[in-house]
Specification:
This protein has helices at about 5-20, 40-60, 85-90, 90-95, 135-145, 215-225, 270-290, 345-350, 380-390, 425-435, 450-460, 470-475, 495-505; strands at about 25, 35-40, 75, 95-100, 110, 115-120, 125-130, 155-160, 170, 185-190, 195, 205, 235-240, 255-265, 295-300, 315-320, 330-340, 360, 365, 370-375, 390, 400, 415, 440-445, 465, 475-480, 485-490. It has about 500 residues and is of the alpha+beta class. The strands form 8 sheets. It has a 7-stranded mixed β-sheet, sandwiched between helices. A 5-stranded mixed β-sheet has the order 24-23-25-26-27, sandwiched between helices. It is globular. The chain has 13 helices and 27 strands.
Length: about 500
């Protein structure tokens, strides 16, 4: 048995995550709700560990800048609901939308820019639509319509939005039983609307934030006035964001409720390009530091037609991309590093009539800072860590194993008595009570030791400590290493220091 790839790998990961309590479908007992997910005990801990690692490395112990000194970054936790004028000024009310296509027959809805069609190479006939990365259903549909065996090599894949309008009547929708059922693309605003107060009229409309960045921009002046920071400096935030995605898909990769890890770096306009390059390299290096394989990461600069509305004055965006199982051999976005120019602060300065300029007492210059934004999805990062960790070891009774970085493992140490008698459970529990204040520890006395090891392998636990029949005599325990499967005898009074040394070097 070898490590699977592509869709098979994704199926294995999803099944393990459900079985071991990493991720559950939201509202599952009612049939679920598309685009929403719940994180179980292990998933919550894994997500919290990744969040804490980002916060530690960005706010509490930020990287060294180009001058060799630590950069200055402070934290913020802004409200999910802000004054609606925030989103008007930022451009989200008028321009935060995706092109949408409906199927008149199946009533399914698709993002037009994620919809492709298969065009037969050898004949002028019907076209078959599919969502990028999943041509299988379209091939089955083409086989049925063309009444012959087909393969992916028989077709050219083209964007649905690039078709001549006269050809759209020949397109079979992904779930349709006839051609010509897809509507023309139209814009669909992604923001969730809600109401503030008892009334539900237009005067009480508010929005769930589609990004955490705007809360930082609104508080830029408050932070500047109350903290010992001056440009260049950053404000970091981790929090929930909500986007009414047309077609949420690929598990937790694209969902309607998610968490972001964002930092807005405020600097002088003439320094923006330097900092843009610095943060691009720093963020790529951070993902590598978590053990993400070099070959699974790449940097891609956005083309001109991809740039967001805030990009101007030569501003650009890089994506840190990851080779997900559902994009393999291609890549998908993990984190964006954007040069937002001074767009956001200027928009809020104009709309609120509040000066957001900064006066530099050393240069006697007054300017609205430019902003560099490294922004990553926390939940998308969890997916990357899950994909990287999944492995198969045929030599083990249960071959599936999650090789999480020790820093991120949801359970760090498992403690077991070999059998539930002869004083072993009491000794194991005493050790558990000693270690639980220093490590995330699970004490388990149920089932055979082999099955307990298998559970810990699937949970990604780096070390298992077993109290056995020799412990009473030699005052030592067996420590099993998750990655090697090797076992080492360690004195009871040295277990804490033994584990501390190994986590310190992780």
């Amino acid at each position: 048995m070898t490590r699977p790839t592509g869709s098979e790998l994704m199926e294995k990961i999803v099944a393990l995550c459900k079985r071991r309590g990493f991720v559950f479908p939201a509202s599952e007992i009612y049939g679920g709700i598309n685009g929403f997910w719940d994180y179980g005990p292990l998933g919550t801990q894994l997500k919290n560990n990744l969040r804490d690692a980002w916060w530690r490395d960005m706010v509490e112990c930020p990287p060294l800048g180009p001058d060799g000194h630590p950069v200055s970054i402070v934290g913020l936790d802004s409200s999910i609901i802000q004054n609606p004028r925030t989103w008007e000024a930022s451009g989200h009310v008028g321009g935060f939308s995706d092109p949408m296509v409906d199927c008149r027959e199946s009533k399914a809805r698709y993002r037009a820019d994620h919809l492709l069609v298969l065009r037969p190479r050898s004949e002028e006939t019907d076209l078959f639509a599919f969502l990028e990365g999943d041509p299988g259903p379209a091939l089955k549909q083409a086989k049925k319509v063309l009444r012959r065996a087909v393969s992916e090599e028989d077709f050219v894949a083209e964007p649905f939005t690039g078709l001549d309008p006269s050809e759209r009547g020949r397109v079979w929708g992904p779930d349709a039983s006839s051609a010509g059922t897809l509507t023309e693309p139209r814009q669909f605003n992604l923001m969730f609307r809600t109401f503030v107060g008892a009334a539900s009229g237009e005067d009480n409309v508010a929005y769930l934030r589609p990004e955490t960045a705007q809360g930082i921009f609104l508080n830029y002046k408050n932070v500047l006035d109350t903290s010992r920071v001056r440009p260049p400096f950053g404000i970091a935030q981790i929090g929930k964001a909500f986007r009414n995605e047309v077609t949420p898909r690929n598990y937790i990769f694209r969902s309607r409720e998610f968490e972001q890890m964002e930092m807005e770096w405020f600097c002088a306009p003439q320094e923006a390009q330097q900092w843009f390059e610095f943060w691009t390299e720093a963020r790529l290096a951070w993902w590598r530091s978590l053990g993400v394989q070099e070959g699974n990461l790449q940097l891609r600069r956005h083309d001109a037609d991809e740039l967001a509305h805030y990009a101007r004055d030569g501003a650009g965006t890089y994506d840190v991309e990851y080779r997900y199982p559902f994009t393999d051999p291609g890549f998908g976005e993990l984190e964006g590093i954007a040069h937002r120019s001074s767009f956001d602060l200027e928009q809020h300065q104009q709309a609120s009539r509040t000066k957001l300029e900064y006066f530099d007492p050393q240069t006697q210059e007054r300017f609205v800072p430019h902003v560099i934004e490294p922004a990553s999805g926390l939940t998308r990062g969890v997916l990357v860590i899950l994909c990287e960790a999944y492995d198969v070891d045929p030599s083990r009774p249960s071959p599936e194993i999650m090789r999480f970085p020790k820093r991120l493992a949801p359970i760090q140490v498992g403690i077991f008595p070999l059998i539930n008698k002869l004083g072993m459970p009491e000794t194991a529990e005493k050790l558990y009570l000693e270690l639980r204040s220093r490590f995330v520890v699970q004490f388990d006395v149920k089932q055979s030791i082999g099955k307990r090891y298998a559970r810990m392998d699937e949970a990604g636990t780096p070390f298992c400590v077993t109290v056995d029949g020799d412990t009473a005599e030699d005052q030592a325990v067996t420590v099993r290493d998750r990655d090697t499967g090797g076992q080492e005898r360690v004195a009871l009074d040295r277990v804490a220091s033994y584990l501390s040394e190994r986590f310190a070097t992780a």
